[in-house]
Amino acid sequence: MNLMVRVTTAAVLPFLFFLVVVAVLSNRIIRTERTSLQREDEITLSRVEERFQGITVDLATSGAILAQNDDTARAVSNRNHRTLYRWSRLFQSSSISWVMFFDTDGVVLSRSDDEYSFSQDLSTVAPVAAALQRERFQGLLVTEDGVFLVDARPVLLYGEVFVGGVMTAANVTGEFLASLSKDADISIELVVEGRRIVSNHPSRTPRARLPLKLSTGDGPTPQRAEIVFYPSQNVQDLVGLQRQLLVVMSLLSLVTAGLVVVIVRTYLRPYTDLVRELLLLARGRVPYESVPRRFEQVFPDSNHEAAIIASAVADFVQTIHTNMIALERLSTTDPLTGLSNRRHMEDILEAECSRAERYSTPFAVLLTDIDNFKTINDTFGHQTGDTVLVRIADRMKELIRETDTIARWGGEEFLLLSPERDLNGAVALAEKLRQAIDDTQLLPGPVPAEPHPVGTASFGVAVWKPGDGPESLLRRADALLYTAKRSGRNRVVSEPSVMRSDK
Amino acid sequence: MTRKTLIVLLVLSAAAIHPLFSQQETSREKTIRFGTYPFGDAARIYRAFSPLVAYLSQETGTPFRLVVTRDYQELARRLADGTIDVAWTGSAIYAAARKDVPGLQYLATYLERDVTGDTVQPYYRSVILTLKSTGITDIHQLEGKRFGFTTPSSAAGYAYPQMLLRDRGIDYPTFFGSTFFLGRHIDVIEALLAGSLDAGAVSDGTWYNAKKAHGDKFRVLATTEPIPLDAVVAAAHVGGTLAAHIRDLLVALPENHDVNRAIRRHLGWPAAGFAVEDADFYQSVDRALGGPDAQ
């Protein structure tokens, strides 16, 4: 997991945790509220049933008072409309929609809700018919004008003489049903003989329905009577709050994650770049010599900590690289002459043999030995001998190609490898070198009593042949050099013919 | 001074003092209580009759006090027991009170200008009305129909119409399908207009006002004989001199007097004054109050 993912996760995780906590706690609160609502629903149900029963009792009480009152009984008997109207108005109330008196034929004598509407024959209407039979009726009445909860009973003058009847009624309307409960989150629905009466019509989806047990007595039984409960505003508010919290927390998490990514990208990017560059460096994908320049490009802000670290690393790499080059030079160079040393020349020779074998490109080797070098040391001292070695090496370097390699092969032996050079060319080069060495004043003075050449060089020249390895090639060159030494020194011997040259 | 002289002096002194005592007693008792029955709102009755009471108080020099009784029975009882001295009674009440209150003195009859405004009369009439829209043109077509009276104690709203029906051979309890007592004349009109009645009995003044208010929608099926207007009476204990004085004061009232104007204004009656009628004037009331069985 990279740094950016870690930092982002660390920043967002608390929000996600809080999100879960909010969801769980709010769910618990909502569940508790809903349980409470169910209990309230049951209370509301019984309250509505009690209020309905209360209105039934009001109707019955008023009907009983009016039926037993001597004044109203006399007025019914005397068909005294005005007196009956006044009495009925006294009993009309918020719960009693109207009071009606009728005679022994069921003809209306007076009704409270319309002073001048009377004389209708209601003898066939169930409540009136019951009262005419001197029976009490209590229940629902369905007419063209609506649905009514009524109480009808006979009126007896002096408690004995049947003179007519009285009917008290409550108009069962939406308002009537609404008056059974002040709770705005419910509606009461009643269906009687196909007529549907609803207290109100909230535009919400119901959350529960409970059947109402209404004591409707003698009239038609409601086909449906129930309370419809709508979602509580509190619960809706809670659910809304929960949603808002969850949305806000989710957005906050996303925004935080985004900000963290931006911040990490902006401020931590150099560090991730640094890690990447160091990994590339460690895996050898970046040449040491290009590190400083590459780091300058990757870290343009030199004041950034990562850039400072990168700069330090680049300096360190450069130092290492320099030391490596120095070490490499030390390991491949003869310290006295500055020529390649024997080990280095062995590596080159090995590689050149492989290359010649692969591409059939022959090369030549020239093995050189300074004639009577021991005499020089013995005569002029080792320091002079070293000087002779240096001067010969310098002279040969001056005369060879850039592609040629010359190495100090032994104490006073030199080996020259000349790529893509045939035997003739190699012999010519060897002769040119021999002549140059011979022409060079190497010694500070004459060597007394020395019959052989001193300060000159002998050469064995061999050319690579297919199947040659370093050992076979050098063996031949060494043999040719030996031949040159034995032949008098200061000469070049090559294969297959031996060409000698003297001074 | 002899005993005889002393006795004579005492008798003379007593004779001289007696008028003073009598005067004091008269002043204490002679607040004339002017009673009337509750034919409407008591406050309106007070406002309507206050000028009359004030007029009589001023003219007689004796304070009159208006008393509105609870009902006819209280008015009759108080006339009889002397706690009301003078009373304004409806014709039906007067007819009943003549029998119930011994020594009741008739003073005058209240006058009204008739519905046409042409004449001043001591009577009015009752009409049996239906709506023209019912198509009923004759009273006998009302058989089995719904009929409305005002109250059984009303002369114009019940007594005279039922007498008219009876005179035409109609026994209303069996003739009509249903009868109702609406209380007020205007209620009969409203019930007719509402379609709750097929016909009803109201005073001619009520019919006249209804015609003005609702247009010519009504048809008069019958008109009763004259119904004597209200009577002013005095209790038996009121002295004849005072009774005559009150009668003269009433009869002397001109039509445009404040007394009549107040009655017109507060009760809506077309008051025109008072007149003294003969003894037979209220006899038709007796016959009307006899009910369906009276001859």
Give the structure's gist in a few sentences.
Chain A is an alpha+beta fold.
What is the topology?
The complex is a heterodimer of chains A (503) and B (295).
Chain A lengths: L2 H66 L1 H9 L2 H11 L6 E6 L4 E4 L14 H7 L4 E7 L2 E12 L3 E11 L2 H6 L6 E7 L2 E4 L9 E4 L12 E6 L3 H50 L8 H8 L6 H28 L9 H18 L3 E8 L2 H8 L1 H18 L5 E4 L4 E7 L3 H17 L17 E7 L6 H17 L5 E3 L9
Chain B lengths: L2 H27 L2 E5 L5 H19 L3 E5 L3 H10 L4 E4 L1 H10 L4 E9 L6 E2 L1 E2 L1 E6 L14 E4 L5 H13 L4 H4 L2 E4 L3 H10 L4 E5 H11 L3 E6 L3 E2 L2 E4 L5 H12 L6 H10 L3 E5 L7 H6 L7
Helix pairs in contact in B: 2-10
Report the β-strand fraction of chain B as a percent range: 15-25%
> Tally of extended strands of chain B?
14
CATH topology name of the largest domain in chain A:
Alpha-Beta Plaits
Output the structural class of chain A.
alpha+beta
CA distance, first residue to last residue of chain B: 76 Å
Assembly type: heterodimer
How large is the count of helical segments of chain B? 11
CATH class of the largest domain in chain A: Alpha Beta
Provide the number of structural domains of chain A.
3
On the 0 to 100 scale, the average pLDDT of chain A is 87
Q: How much β-strand is present in the residues of chain A? A: 15-25%
Weakly predicted, low-confidence segments of chain A:
498-503
Features:
heterodimer; A: 503 residues; alpha+beta; Beta-Lactamase; Alpha-Beta Plaits; 5-stranded antiparallel sheet; 14 strands; rod-shaped; disordered C terminus; B: 295 residues; alpha/beta
What does this structure look like?
The complex is a heterodimer of chains A (503) and B (295). Chain A has 503 residues and is α+β, with helices and mostly antiparallel strands. Chain A folds into three domains: 3-36 and 234-332; 68-171, 2-Layer Sandwich (Beta-Lactamase); 342-501, Alpha-Beta Plaits (2-Layer Sandwich). Chain A has helices at residues 3-68, 70-78, 81-91, 126-132, 174-179, 233-282, 291-298, 305-332, 342-359, 373-380, 382-399, 423-439, 470-486; strands spanning 98-103, 108-111, 137-143, 146-157, 161-171, 186-192, 195-198, 208-211, 224-229, 363-370, 405-408, 413-419, 457-463, 492-494. In chain A, the strands form three sheets. A five-stranded antiparallel β-sheet of chain A has the order 2-1-5-4-3. In chain A, strands 11-12-10-13-14 form a five-stranded mixed β-sheet, sandwiched between helices. In chain A, a hairpin with a 4-residue loop joins strand 1 and strand 2. The longest helix of chain A is centred in the first third of the chain and has 66 residues, at 3-68. Chain A is rod-shaped. The two termini of chain A are 79 Å apart. With 295 residues, chain B is α/β, with parallel strands linked by helices. Chain B has helices spanning 3-29, 42-60, 72-81, 91-100, 155-167, 172-175, 185-194, 204-214, 240-251, 258-267, 283-288, and strands at 32-36, 64-68, 86-89, 105-113, 120-121, 123-124, 126-131, 146-149, 178-181, 199-203, 218-223, 227-228, 231-234, 271-275. In chain B, strands 1, 2, 3, 4, 5, 13 and 14 form a seven-stranded mixed β-sheet that branches. Chain B has a five-stranded mixed β-sheet with strand order 9-8-10-7-11. In chain B, helix 2 links the parallel strand 1 (32-36) and strand 2 (64-68). In chain B, helix 2 (42-60) packs antiparallel against helix 10. The longest helix of chain B is centred in the first third of the chain and has 27 residues, at 3-29. The N and C termini of chain B lie far apart (76 Å). The model of chain B is unreliable at 6-28 (pLDDT under 50). Chain A binds chain B through residues 78-83, 85, 103, 105, 107, 109, 114-120, and chain B through 146, 148, 151-152, 178-184, 187, 190-191, 193-194, 196-197.
